[in-house]
Every structure is written in structure tokens, then in C-alpha cells.
Design a protein that fits this description.
Pfam families: HGTP_anticodon, tRNA-synt_2b. Its EC number is 6.1.1.14. Keywords: Aminoacyl-tRNA synthetase, ATP-binding, Ligase, Nucleotide-binding, Protein biosynthesis. The chain is an alpha+beta fold and about 600 residues long. It has four domains: about 10-65 and about 175-355 and about 440-475, BirA Bifunctional Protein, domain 2 (2-Layer Sandwich); about 90-155, Herpes Virus-1; about 360-440, no CATH class; about 485-590, Anticodon-binding domain (Rossmann fold). About 35% of the residues lie in helices and about 30% in strands. The chain contains 19 helices and 28 strands. The strands form eight sheets. The chain has a nine-stranded mixed sheet. Strand 18 and strand 19 form a beta hairpin. The longest helix has 22 residues, at about 5-25. The relative contact order is 0.10.
Length: about 600
């Protein structure tokens, strides 16, 4: 198959999946009665259940199994939070507007869709403008030329007001992380001021995307599952023994920059030893995440970790890798794994005045020399007026940083770009011995951040299959039993009161066992099987006349992927199917 044919087939699969999703209640565009609104999707009964199962699986692995706490913070936060985090000034995408039809587009997407550039987002705006001109790129909507059009930075924040009247400005959070960071002074108390500790959150985030596209892959409202792991940068190291043998496909920056570079397979342990993954904490969570993705149904032949290039990495991140899945012949980001340093906590400490540190107790008290200043305000006040306090802070910082600056008769400080000399005798400079029981440490943060919606889409896309059964074409979703929205369908063979009564009782017993069950008596049995195949239901139970007329007549249990059928005792169904869902028993191993 040629690349063009492959792309066409992939596109066809995506179109079929979106249609199936709408028809079977996975997801569809919101507010359809009013013409729909771009970038907003409703998850239907099946989609909400699948999404919930993925979230539960994430919670079990990254909160419960790792011993981390979970919170649920508001989605609207006051403006100062985002002034501190930098989102008001730097949370932008590149926008280009068509001169003819007036449609706005992501400039980097226009470049990526029509050139060989794969990561145009990492390019500076002037270079993107040059590429648009060089390739004579056109508007995706009307075909008008975009060369010469300005590319502007567009802030993605959704603004709102908090309270009536002269209200306070607020914003819908663009990431769940800030809800964790701003509560750190209280959360550290719940962790008994002991590092390391982790805080997770699953919730909605909002970004006013310029051009949302590809159904739930890029939307304006989406769900994130994030872990903020707080560590002592001088003392805490992860135990890599549990993940060092995990095999991963990596696409590091060095390979992306090489002319003939490509992804390759290795293990987490080898990648750390060879310096490919430089941060051991990032490596640890990459190792934890890979088997989790496999467990929820991501095809590992279409999965990789790609390292951020220098131009696309956030300025505060020392290293960042994305979990990517192949969809329609393209790679999409599902999660980011970043070492954020102490940027977030330091910024919130600076802007709020609260303490975003953890007190680290020494094993034994230490006697240390501290340089201090006690300036004469009677001198600084007349000399500097309203800037006197700023001068004090400059002197304190200088004494802590470089005490030798006070060796002469005067010390120089910079104030608003202007140099000033202050007599050392007026600074109250002294070096004193102090006994300290510990020190305040600003933790560093390691962040695995998962896009739940993109994970759900990937799971559905990788699960989509077409085959032929008994001479008829069939579509089915090969969903893992752990995440499938419905685990078992129960059918009476025909519309018969006795059959329906027995089938209803079986469905109730399976629900009592904690299994998700659908009951269906509409249409012939073949059509009911096909419906459940499209939904992705792993098993179907059919009640026939032998079930009610014979002692221990049993029922027929059909497995979705193979369509194989086995006869099982009714009384054993709850226990048997529960064991299969838990992974303790395989359908092929069942004895009739």
C-alpha cells in the first residue's frame, strides 16, 4: 500500500470511528440543537463510562499504588494566580488570519500540515512568517494566500468575573496543576512536611484554541489527570529497580535533529545509564506509564516517548518527554513528563507572600556563619526616600550571596538600573555564628500530565477493527475488559416471558457482582451481537430454552474478538466473569 493509500485508509478509519462514536453514544459535538459549537464535545453513555474507567485506572496506578494523595480544586481561579504562574503573559499560540474570508488558523498547524516541518510550534514567530511566505501557504478554509500576513501571539486563557458588581477578574484554569501548586502551604501539612510526596488531580481544563480540530483530540474543554511530585533536589532519588527493565521506544532530541535520525527501542535502565534520559525522576514515571498505557489498550507498536526540542520546552523545565500515539499516520501527544524545578512554588511564594517551602530537620543541629545587615534607616530614609526598603532587601540579598562585597569602605548596589554606593558602616553588616536545627527547602516538582480525552480517543482508535463473520462484514472495538464501558450483554434468545424473566434475573445477579451489564431483547440475536461488538462489550450471555427447561441447562457465553461460544452454568456466571475481568482467568481456559 502506498503512503497516499495508507493515509486515505487511516483517514477513512478515523471518519468511521467518529461516526461510530456518535451512533453508539461515545462522543459527539455539543449543543447540536443550536448548530454545535467548535471545540466542545459531550461524552455519551458509553463514552462517559469508558472515560470514567480510564480515569479510575489512572487513579489506581498513579495515586493509590504510588501512595499519593488526591485533591479536587476549583476550575476558576483569581487573576493573581495566573500572573504568578506566567500564563497571562506567555500562554500563547500563533495565530494567522486569512485576508479574504477572515478565518483564524494556528499558524504552526498550517506550516506542519503543508510542509516537512514537524514541530513548527517550536519556531519563533518571524521564522513561521518566513516559512508561510517561502512555501506560499494558503488559507485552509478558502485557499487565499497567507504570505505577508502577520502571525500574532494569541493568549489561550478564558476570562471571567468572580462576584457581582465591581467583581474580581478570574480565569478558567488552563491546567489542573495550578490548583495543586497554590495549595502547597496546606498540602505539605497533610504530608507531615516530609519530602518526597505527590498530589494528584483529575479534572477539567480550558484553553481557547484558535482552531480546534480532529474531534476530541484538540478541544477547548478537556480533562487532565496530573501528578505533581514534590522532591528535595539534594536528597531524593527514585528507586529505578522496578522500572529499569521496562522496554520503551524513544525519539530523543538528538535523533530528531539528525538528518537520518529515527526512534529506537531500549530499556529505561539503559536510557538512564547512557544519558539519553537525563533526569532519573522523569525516567521513573516514563517506566511506570508505559505498562499502564498498554493495560488500558494503547497499541505498543504505535506508541513512543518523544523528547521536547530546546525550542518547544518550557523555560522552567530541565527536561520533558511526551507520550505519543500514532493516529491516522500522525503522532499525537497524550501526556507530558517534565521536571519543572522550583519555578512554580518560587513564583507563588514571590507573588503571594506565603511560604512555599518545607522545613528540613538536620540529624544534629549545625553551627554556621551567617552574614547579616541591620541598616541605619536614619541614613537610608533621607537618602533614598520611598526606595529605602528596596535598598534594605538589596543589601540582605547581597550579604547572603557575596559577603566579600562588604570588605571595603562602601558597598555598591543597583537600584532600577542605577548604581549607588552605601558606606559599609551604615549597613550594619556583621557575620555571626548561629545554631540551626534545619533549613527551609523549596521543593522541585516532577510532573506527569495526562490528557484523558486524547487517551480515550487513542484507545478507541487502536481498538477499532473490521472483519468478516459468517460471510458478513463486522465492526468491533477490541477494548480491554478493564476499561470497556459495558462488560457483558445479556439477551433472551426470543421474546418469551420465561426467557426474559430468566435473562433479567441473570443480568441482576451480574450487576450485584459489580459488573457493568446491558440487557437487550430487541431484534434478532445476530443484530444484538453486532451492536455489542460495535460498543466493544467483551462478552454476551444468551438465555435459550435449554437454560430454563433442563436442570443445569446453562447459558451461551460469546467472546467478542473471536466470536467463540461456550456453554456455562448459570450459577457460576458471576464468579467466572468477575475472574475474567480481573485478569485471573482467560476465556480460552474455560471448561464447558
Amino acid at each position: 500500500m502506498s503512503e497516499q493509500e495508507h493515509a486515505s485508509a487511516a483517514e477513512s478509519t478515523s471518519e468511521k470511528l467518529v461516526e461510530l462514536a456518535k451512533r453508539r453514544g461515545y462522543f459527539f459535538q455539543s449543543s447540536g440543537a443550536y448548530g454545535g459549537v467548535g471545540g466542545f464535545y459531550t461524552f455519551g453513555p458509553q463514552g462517559a463510562a469508558l472515560k470514567g474507567n480510564v480515569e479510575d485506572a489512572w487513579r489506581d496506578r498513579f495515586a493509590v499504588a504510588e501512595g499519593n494523595m488526591e485533591i479536587d480544586a476549583p476550575t476558576i481561579m483569581p487573576e493573581p494566580v495566573f500572573e504568578a504562574s506566567g500564563h497571562l503573559d506567555g500562554f500563547d499560540d500563533m495565530l494567522v488570519e486569512c485576508p479574504d474570508c477572515g478565518e483564524s488558523h494556528r499558524a504552526d498547524h498550517v506550516v506542519e500540515d503543508n510542509t516537512d516541518y514537524e514541530d513548527a510550534e517550536s519556531l519563533p514567530i518571524p521564522e513561521v512568517e518566513d516559512v508561510i511566505a517561502e512555501y506560499e501557504l494558503v488559507c485552509p478554509s478558502c485557499g487565499a494566500g497567507l504570505a505577508g500576513q502577520a502571525v500574532d501571539a494569541f493568549n489561550l486563557m478564558f476570562a471571567t468575573n468572580i462576584g457581582p458588581g465591581d467583581s474580581d477578574p478570574g480565569y478558567l484554569r488552563p491546567e489542573t496543576a495550578q490548583g495543586i501548586f497554590v495549595e502547597f502551604p496546606r498540602l505539605k501539612e497533610y504530608a507531615r512536611n516530609q519530602l518526597p510526596f505527590g498530589v494528584t488531580q483529575i479534572g477539567r481544563a480550558y484553553r481557547n484554541e484558535i482552531s480546534p480540530r480532529r474531534s476530541i483530540i484538540r478541544t477547548r474543554e478537556f480533562t487532565q489527570a496530573e501528578l505533581e511530585y514534590f522532591i528535595d533536589p539534594e536528597a531524593d532519588e527514585p528507586d529505578l529497580s522496578d522500572v529499569e527493565d521496562v522496554e520503551v521506544t524513544l525519539y530523543p532530541a538528538s535523533e530528531q535533529n539528525a538528518e537520518d535520525g529515527d526512534e529506537f527501542r531500549t530499556t529505561i535502565g539503559e536510557a538512564v545509564a547512557e544519558g539519553i534520559i537525563t533526569d532519573p525522576w522523569v525516567a521513573y514515571f516514563l517506566g511506570v506509564a508505559k505498562p499502564w498505557y498498554e493495560a488500558v489498550g494503547v497499541d505498543m507498536d504505535r506508541f513512543r516517548y518523544r523528547q521536547h526540542l530546546a525550542g518547544e520546552r518550557a523555560h522552567y523545565a530541565s527536561d520533558c518527554w511526551d507520550a505519543e500515539s500514532e493516529i491516522d499516520g500522525n503522532w499525537i501527544e497524550m501526556a507530558g513528563f517534565a521536571h519543572r524545578g522550583n519555578y512554580d512554588l518560587s513564583k507563588h511564594a514571590e507573588h503571594s507572600g506565603d511560604r512555599f517551602t518545607v522545613f528540613k530537620q538536620y540529624d544534629e543541629p549545625k553551627t554556621v556563619e551567617r552574614a547579616t545587615v541591620d541598616p541605619e534607616m536614619s541614613y537610608l530614609g533621607p537618602e533614598f526616600g520611598g526606595d529605602a526598603q528596596a535598598v534594605v532587601e538589596k543589601l540582605e540579598a547581597l550579604a547572603a550571596r557575596d559577603r566579600s562585597a562588604f570588605d571595603g569602605d562602601a558597598v555598591a548596589i543597583d537600584l532600577e538600573g542605577e548604581s549607588h554606593e552605601i558606606p559599609v558602616e551604615k549597613t550594619g553588616f556583621a557575620v555571626e555564628e548561629q545554631t540551626e536545627a534545619g533549613e527551609h527547602v523549596t521543593p522541585h516538582v516532577v510532573e506527569p500530565s495526562f490528557g484523558v480525552d486524547r487517551t480515550v480517543y487513542t484507545v478507541l482508535h487502536h481498538a477499532y477493527h473490521e472483519d468478516e463473520v459468517d460471510g458478513e462484514e463486522r465492526t468491533f472495538l477490541e477494548l480491554d475488559p478493564e476499561v470497556a464501558p459495558t462488560f457483558v450483554g445479556v439477551f433472551p434468545l426470543q421474546n418469551d416471558d420465561e426467557l426474559e424473566s430468566e435473562a433479567t434475573a441473570i443480568a441482576a445477579a451480574l450487576r450485584d457482582a459489580g459488573l457493568s451489564v446491558t440487557y437487550d431483547e430487541s431484534g434478532n440475536i445476530g443484530r444484538r451481537y453486532r451492536r455489542q461488538d460495535e460498543v466493544g462489550t467483551p462478552f454476551c450471555v444468551t438465555v435459550d430454552y435449554e437454560s430454563i427447561e433442563q436442570d443445569e441447562g446453562g447459558v451461551t457465553v460469546r467472546e467478542r474478538d473471536s466470536t467463540d461460544q461456550k456453554r456455562l452454568a448459570i450459577d457460576d456466571l458471576p464468579e467466572t466473569l468477575s475472574a475474567i475481568r480481573a485478569g485471573d482467568l482467560a476465556f480460552d481456559d474455560l471448561e464447558e
